[in-house]
Amino acid sequence: MNVLGIHIAVELIQIVVAVVAFLAFIGVNVLVLVLMERKVAGRFQRRPGPYEVGPHGSLQTLADAVKMMAKELHTPRGADKVLFWAAPIVTFAPVVVSFMPIPFGPKYLTGWEVNLGVVLILAFASLGVFGICLAGWSSNNKWSLIGAARAVAQSVAYEIPLLLSVLAIAFQVGSLNLSEITAGQGSWPWQWNVAVQPLAFFIFVVSMLGETNRAPFDLPEAESELTAGFHTEYSGMGFGLFFMAEYAAMVVVCSVGTVLFLGGWKGPVFDGPWWFLAKVYGLLFVMMWFRWTFPRVRFDQLLNINWKWLTPLALLNLLAVAFLVKVV
Amino acid sequence: MRPEEAFRTLSGDFYTRSLQPGPTEDTLILNMGPQHPSTHGVLRIVLELDGEYIVRAEPVLGYIHRMHEKMGEVKTFAQYLPNMGRVDYLHALAWNWAYVGAVEKLCGIEVSERAEYIRVITAEMNRISSHFVWWGAYLLDLGAFTPIMYAFDDREWLLDLLQIVTGSRLTYCYFRFGGVSDDVTPEFIEGTFRWCERMRSRLPMYKALVTDNIILRKRCEEIGPIDLDMARRYGATGPVLRGSGVAYDVRRAEPYSVYDRFHFEIPVGKAGGDAMDRYLVRMAEMEQSLNIIEQALRRLPPGPVMHEKAPKRLKAPKGEAYFAVEGARGKIGVHLVSDGGKNPYRVKLRAPGFSNLSLFSELARGVLLADAVSILGSLDLVIPEIDR
Fold first, then answer.
1. Contact check, Cβ <8 Å, B142/A295
2. Which of A127, A197, A279, B17 could form a disulfide with A94 if both were Cys (CB 3.0 to 4.6 A apart)?
3. Longest C-alpha distance within chain B, in Å?
4. Counting Cβ atoms within 10 Å, is residue A281 exposed (0-12), middle (13-18) or buried (19+)?
């Protein structure tokens, strides 16, 4: 009994330490990512981007964060107070947990070694939409409501091809443990899963854009249609949490993509977390590239892409993989 | 439907008053604007939505009504001129021209030939700058953030050039009764040639990068088709009409100034043109405007920019005059009635945007919210011109 108690205590401490570490990680990453997004956008648009605060505007997001925290938290008239302020937290919290099973590097750089890591991430990723739904409903704003309705339809739809493409890798490796999936891949790009399953990778990348509500699939917050979608009524850190959740979710999906398809922390020379971060940021750059290049798709087109193309394609891919795994 | 009807949704007596559902049970009344990112200014549209489908759409106007027509009655002919740059701030020179043209017609003032050419050059440049703003803003409506920066980059050059001759960058007041206020400089002529050259390489790039993008095509094709009958009923003009396959351009149909001396084509869309046709017409128009500018610059005659016989003090005879020009949004008309006094007796401004906006209600019926934004953008509205 005592041994079990100690074991649980150790596990709990480990989880707490990991959560705190991930919160710090998310904070730093969001600051860097927002700056990167704005700098990338600037380069794409023939302008320098933020330039005033700090050298080359490097402290701009920090200043923005301070501003956001100092702003008044305003609750709109007729809004459901409890749900309205619970929503940003409900959106943000699952994203933090999603970091737990990701192996950032060899040995200790995994928050929590779980055998069902992939399932855990997908489960918590689906929780995020719950918060968006609450935000849209409790805001007492019709634009928010439409945005939330869009978010629900979109997330539910895009989880399916995402799951199917992830399953294809799980079939191939024979494990849902992210560390084992990394271990199954070699150091060189042609030894990564993307070389074996390019179709699954393609489906994964498209559905990860849909899952994180990024352009060209940013319909829940389509600003030219819905003003700001589900977070229209949020101010200060309420909005800030949604914002952080969006960027953190981007990091999560890119991390999962890196682990599943791009060899995780393995690289041609000096395996380690730096390779992991480099690949994650590479994928993040691609997401930004899409955002600043493409127009937004329409909602029915978005669902058509998913149900008519991605899902059947992912199913076929999965069948083919299952067949090959069984035969070979 | 009138806007009051949209809000006649209260039921019960004073104590039991509550909101009534719309005509069908699942609809939702939604205010789009007057502060909405894609109504481009202070246009308000009352929408009745069934899910994301629009059941009814009714534009509500007048948020930026500035009594331009009334102002005409209390100012002298010359004092009213600066108002024209403010009616449609994107194609200010066309309004300049329409008013100046009407006054010249009323008083029988002749215009010097050099001034006519300068008017053509500057008005066409202004048309391109207006189309650039439309292009950037339309793509912004469709969710592409980058093109507007490219458009404004090119437009910046253009505004710099226009600033040399007109002295201002947006709300020009450059044309005078009988000519223009200042002559063009060699710097302007050379700069304009170089800018035209640059534009000829930029436009194909925009086509490759933006126009041929599959997402853009899917967002524009078969959206908001306007057939001939509909265009006629609402009095649509400009690219909205030409997008539906009617080659009606005031520059060609009722030639004014020296437009009959230039070679240019009138781009048209197909019958029943959709948002993509209107898009393509405007893009092609930019190219045609470049042709006109280059021809006019090459053939620019020497001489004064004000006609020698232009009166120093304007004395308008009793009578009326109507003058129409082709603006970036369509037919701009100014109708002046004079009783022989120093002020116009009545000024009527015909804004093309007003007629084009009238189409929206019918076009938006039954489409998705996102398509309504696309349709609204493809009509290219400037709200101050509509509200006047």
1. yes
2. A127
3. 79
4. middle
Give the pairing of strands B53-60 and B175-176. Answer: unpaired
How many other C-beta atoms lie within 10 A of the C-beta of residue A8?
Answer: 10
Q: What are the sequence ranges of the domains in chain A? A: 76-327
**Which among B328, B251, B249, B246 has a CA at the least distance from the CA of B283?**
B328
Quote the tokens at residue B343.
Answer: 């002020």
User: Which domains does chain B carry?
Assistant: 1-64+352-388 (3.30.390), 68-350 (1.10.645.10)
Residues 6-65 of A with CB under 8 A from B: 41, 44-47
Sign of CA dihedral B178, B182, B186, B188: negative
CA distance A26 to A83: 24
Q: Do B368 and A298 touch (CB under 8 A)?
A: yes
Contact (CB<8Å) A296/B373: no
| Identity of the residue in A44, A216, A225 whose CB atom sits nearest the CB atom of B369 | A225
CA distance B136 to B150: 8
Pairing of strands B10-11, B318-326: unpaired
- Cα–Cα dist A267/B300, whole Å: 66
Residue with tokens 């050298």: A55
Sorted by sequence, the CB contacts under 8 Å of residue B173 that are 6+ apart come out as B81, B82, B84, B85, B92, B96, B166, B181
Helix (H) or strand (E) holding B324: strand B318-326
Please report, in angstroms and rounded to a whole number, the separation of the first and last CA atoms in chain B. Answer: 23
How many CB pairs below 8 A link A and B? 75
Work out the number of other CB atoms within 10 angstroms of the CB of residue A193.
Answer: 23
Q: Residue A22 carries which side chain, given as an amino acid letter?
A: F
Per-residue pLDDT of chain A (328 residues; tens, 9 = 90+): 577 888 888 888 878 888 888 888 888 888 888 888 888 888 888 888 888 888 888 888 888 888 888 888 888 888 888 888 888 888 888 888 888 888 887 776 676 777 788 888 888 888 888 888 888 888 888 888 888 888 888 888 888 888 888 888 888 888 888 888 888 788 787 888 788 888 888 999 888 888 888 878 887 776 667 777 788 888 888 888 888 888 888 888 898 888 888 887 887 888 778 888 888 999 999 988 888 888 888 888 888 888 888 899 999 988 888 888 878 7
Q: Say which DSSP state A140 is in.
A: T
Residues of B with CB under 8 A from a CB of A: 28, 30, 36-38, 49, 52, 139-146, 149-150, 153, 213, 215-216, 218-219, 368-371, 373
Q: What is the dihedral of CA A219, A225, A230, A236, to 10 degrees?
A: 120
CA atoms within 13 A on the CB side of B341: 11
Contact between chains at A297 and B150 (C-beta distance less than 8 A)? no
Q: List chain B residues with CB under 8 Å of A47.
A: 149
Q: Helix, strand or coil for residue B66?
A: coil
CB distance from A281 to chain B under 8 Å? no
Q: Across the interface, do B146 and A295 touch by the CB < 8 Å criterion?
A: no
Question: Distance between alpha carbon A247 and the CA centroid of its chain, in Å?
Answer: 7
Chain A CA closest to residue B216: A295
A contacts of B140 (beta carbons < 8 Å)? 224
Paired strand residues for A206? none
B300 CB-contact burial (10 Å; exposed 0-12 / middle 13-18 / buried 19+): middle
